[in-house]
Design brief:
The protein is an alpha/beta fold and about 160 residues long. It has a single domain, classed as Rossmann fold (3-Layer(aba) Sandwich). It contains 6 helices and 6 strands; from the N terminus they run E-H-E-E-H-E-H-E-H-E-H-H.
């Protein structure tokens, strides 16, 4: 089963594309799509708008396809699921998810970044064959940055 999540917004182009792939029998798997606030309702895939928790859907899926929101990406990576992530460039900031997915896909082999919807069918086949690595969260270095910043701060009215 392929589970697709678009998060809180809508990702009409992704939902329509998957519905078309299912309709034309290019994907034979069962597809369940969380469409969020989207208006397009798939005719060939199961769908729902929202659920209190998506963990059961993630766990049942062979492959998860998701928008590039960091919350969704890290949630799926923590569950060690095969993830194909696409940037939803129709959001308020069209570059945000592109920059995030581009950076994380260079950092880890834990997901597949699909930068073009026309490549999605191929990326699904790739995900089935690929051995994904387990995502290792980088160690937080924020305390070092704060310490360094505070050491450089000039003192007031020194004479």
């Amino acid at each position: 089963m392929i589970f697709v999540t678009v998060g809180n917004g809508k990702f009409e182009s992704l939902v329509k594309h998957l519905d078309h792939l299912k309709e034309t029998n290019q994907i034979k798997d069962k597809i369940i799509i969380q469409i969020g606030h989207g208006n397009f309702e798939p005719k060939h895939c199961e769908f729902f708008k929202f659920a209190p928790n998506l963990t059961n859907y993630y766990n049942k899926a062979d492959v998860v396809i998701g928008h590039g929101g960091p919350g969704t990406v890290f949630e799926v990576l923590r569950l060690k699921k095969k993830l194909i992530a696409l940037a939803n460039t129709n959001r308020t900031d069209p570059r945000h998810q592109v920059e995030f997915l581009s950076a994380i896909s260079k950092e880890t082999n834990s997901l597949i970044y699909c930068d073009d919807l026309s490549k999605l069918k191929h990326k699904i086949k790739e995900a089935r064959l690929k051995t994904f690595s387990t995502y290792q969260k980088p160690e937080c270095q924020m305390h070092n940055l704060i310490h360094s910043f505070l050491k450089k701060k000039p003192k007031k009215n020194q004479k």
